[in-house]
Amino acid sequence: MANLHQLKKQIIDIGKLTYNRGFVAANDGNISARLDDNRIVITPTGVSKGALSPETLVICDMSGKALSSEGKPSSEILMHLKVYQLRKDIFGIVHAHPPYATAFGIAGIPLSQAVLPEVIMTLGAIPLVKYGTPGTQALSEPLTDFLPNHDAFILQNHGALAIGKDLQTAYFRMETLEHFAHIAFVSYLLGKIHTLPDEEVKKLLQMRAKSGFTGEFQPVTCEDQKEACAILEPGATLVGHPSENTSTSKSSDSVTYSAIQSIVADIIDSYLKK
Ligand SMILES: [Zn+2]
C-alpha cells in the first residue's frame, strides 16, 4: 500500500513544479494520487498549487466523499475518479492549463503528427477531448472513449490532463505534452513540418510496447473518434491548416534517422535505469 505521508509530499512537490513552470495560474489545476483500492488523495479547491500543505490535501473515497481534512476536494474530482475507475494501472493524475497545450485545445487542433520520437515513445497519441462544463460529469464523460488507449489528453477550451503509473510519471507526461505543444507551435510558424515516415513510426511503436509504457497505444484507435483522436499518421496535416504549409519526409536521409534512433536508445536506457 502507498505511504500517505510520501504521497502527500509528492503532491506538494509536483504542485510547486506545476505552479512554478506556469502550467497553472492562481488556484487552477488539480493533482491526485491513488492511496489504495478505495481511496485517493487530492488537492483541495481554492488553494494555489504552489502553496499546498499536508493538512490541506483531502482523502476521498471512490464516490468522491471526503474522509478527512477540513478542505473541500477539487471541483474536478469527478474527472480524477473516472480515470481511476477505468484505468486500474493509474496511480497519479495531473490536470493543468499549460499555455501552449491549452491553446491547441482552444484552436481545436489535436497534436496529431508523428514528428518527435520521444513523444511517440512516451505519450503515444494525444487526443483532443470534447469540451464539457468544468466541475460536472460533462467534463469527464468525453474522456471515456480515449482512456483505454491514451495517457495524455488535450481538453478542448480548457487545458490538459496527464496520467501515469505514479505521480512523477503523470507530471513528466504533462511536461512532455506542453513541450511538444510549444515545439509544434513554433514549427507551424516556421511553415514546414517534416513528419516521420511509416516505417520509423512503426519501429518507435514497437520500442514503446517493449519498454513497458502504459496505455494500449494503437496508431489508429478510438473508433468513431478518429477526427478528435490524435492519429499518428505520417504525412497528416494539422487539422484546420492549409496542407501546402506541410511537407512530408518520406525521402528523409539516413543521417537524420540514425540520430533519431540514437535519441530513442538514450530514452530507453534512461527509463530502464529507473
Ligand atoms: Zn481545469
Structure in a nutshell:
38% of the residues lie in helices and 13% in strands. The chain is of the alpha+beta class. The protein has a 7-stranded mixed sheet with strand order 3-2-1-4-7-6-5, sandwiched between helices. It has a two-stranded parallel ribbon with strand order 8-9.
Q: How many discrete domains? A: 1
Distinct ligands: zinc ion
The strand line-up of the biggest sheet is 3-2-1-4-7-6-5
- In DSSP terms (H or I, runs of 4 or more residues), the helix count works out at 8
Q: What pattern of helices and strands is seen along the backbone?
A: HEEEHEHHEHEEHEHEH
Integer average pLDDT:
81
The CATH superfamily turns out to be: Class II aldolase/adducin N-terminal domain
Name given to the CATH architecture: 3-Layer(aba) Sandwich
Q: Could you tell me the number of beta strands?
A: 9
Low-confidence stretches: 216-225, 228-257
- Shape designation: globular
User: How is the biggest beta sheet arranged?
Assistant: 7 strands, mixed
In percent terms, what proportion of residues is strand?
Answer: 5-15%
User: Based on helices, strands and strand pairing, what is the structural class?
Assistant: alpha+beta
- Helix coverage percent: 25-40%
Write structural notes for this entry.
The protein is α+β, with helices and mostly antiparallel strands and about 270 residues long. It has one domain: Class II aldolase/adducin N-terminal domain (L-fuculose-1-phosphate Aldolase, 3-Layer(aba) Sandwich). Helices cover about 40% and strands about 15% of the residues. It has eight helices and nine strands. It has helices at about 5-20, 75-85, 100-105, 115-120, 135-140, 165-190, 200-210, 255-274; strands at about 30-35, 40, 60, 90-95, 130, 150-155, 160-165, 195, 245-250. Strands 3-2-1-4-7-6-5 form a seven-stranded mixed beta sheet, sandwiched between helices. It has a two-stranded parallel sheet with strand order 8-9. Helix 5 links the parallel strand 5 (about 130) and strand 6. Zinc ion (ZN) binds near residues 97, 134 and 158.
